[in-house]
Amino acid sequence: MKPSTLFLLLFAMLSVVSCEQDDDPQLQEFLVARPLTMTLEAFARSVEVAAPQPLQESGKIYAYADFIFVNEPYKGIHVIDNRDPASPEKIRFIAIPGNVDLSVKDNYLFADSLQDLVVLDISDMDNIRPVTRLEGVLQDNIPWPFEADIVEYGSWDPQTEVLVGWELTTERLPAEEVQNRLWRNDALMAEAAADSGTGQGGSMARFKIVGDYLYAVDSHNINVFDIANLEAPNALDDVFAGFDIETIFHRGDHLFLGSMRGMYIFDITSPGAPSFVSEFQHGTACDPVVVDGDYAFVTLRGGNECGAMESGLFIVDISDITNPELAISYPMDSPYGLGVQANQLFVCDGASGLKVYDKSDVFNLVPLAHFKDVVPYDVIPLSTHLLMVGDGALMQYRYNEAGLELLSSLLLKG
């Protein structure tokens, strides 16, 4: 028999076996999550500056001077040179395991790394320099992989290792075996939760610098830092703020916290000790918040881990800061970030695209534009143009009377 004939025969036999396995009614497809870990020693020295890298998942976006920083959840920060907004360029990747947020003041970048706060000097982008690391001053922010059917802890030891993320794979497994795994994982989950102290973080902005203070929210608290000495921030007492807090926004003497239960408002007249003012409750849903004039704009995203079934845009009257009241709501599909610039309102409505409205009359929002070919996650309205990140791309739009005009598009995945 010729070698080529033998090869074809073997290939055909393997194909038949493979097809039989795929058709096995005892096997089902399951999404399996396994922990990605580092030793405590490696984690303590894990911040590294590297060449540009492809982005797999878009996170927080931050603009500072001529640069844009895009977080890749739990991995680090992509640095983009934006001196020419029509032709932005990726120039660096700052690897920070467990990172989901950042903020910058006077060429010092503050970022979370699980429960630690790290500070980097970015005055020279060709020589980004780690400055200090405050250990254990934040709550861990690695979320539970809710989308997974099975969570395999394997040999992860919370006493000697740090959980920095999850690896998700699709596997065909016998249903009976899966039930056994689920039983084992329930016990492991309870044990790990007691030992590791890990928790869930937010989706949009959780860091905000106001003057000489950095405010970082976790699920229950405002973590306050005096950053008058930028190279040696001082952790002050945490302030209990509520439950399931996800985002933070600043205007004047107030912080506006978005949570899965509502919006909390805090006074920062005494910046080192924020004090509660009022709250607006909306049920249970994931939400960021921005404020403009007498109104707070809140997007509520229902479904999955967010709790509520319906999504929408809520506009809250805050003319009386002590008694916020719902003015009106509009239905949305699956909104994430949002922003305002003059009379324009921008809503990142997930797979339904970027929506632009004239908000001159909040009781009658007028649609100006709808970009259906993008999947936006977050926006930053600058004075001259809009930044938008989502689905592995950075888009920049020039403002015009009709809404927006595309200025540039940078594929971050490449």
TrEMBL record:
User: Which InterPro entries does its entry note?
Assistant: LVIVD, Quino_amine_DH_bsu
Its domain of life reads Bacteria
Q: Does the keyword Acyltransferase apply?
A: no
Q: Which UniProt keywords apply?
A: Signal
Please list the coiled coil stretches: none
Which stretch is the leader sequence? Answer: 1-18
Q: Name one Pfam family in it.
A: LVIVD
**Record-given protein name:** LVIVD repeat-containing protein
Query: What organism does the record attribute this protein to?
Result: Robiginitalea marina
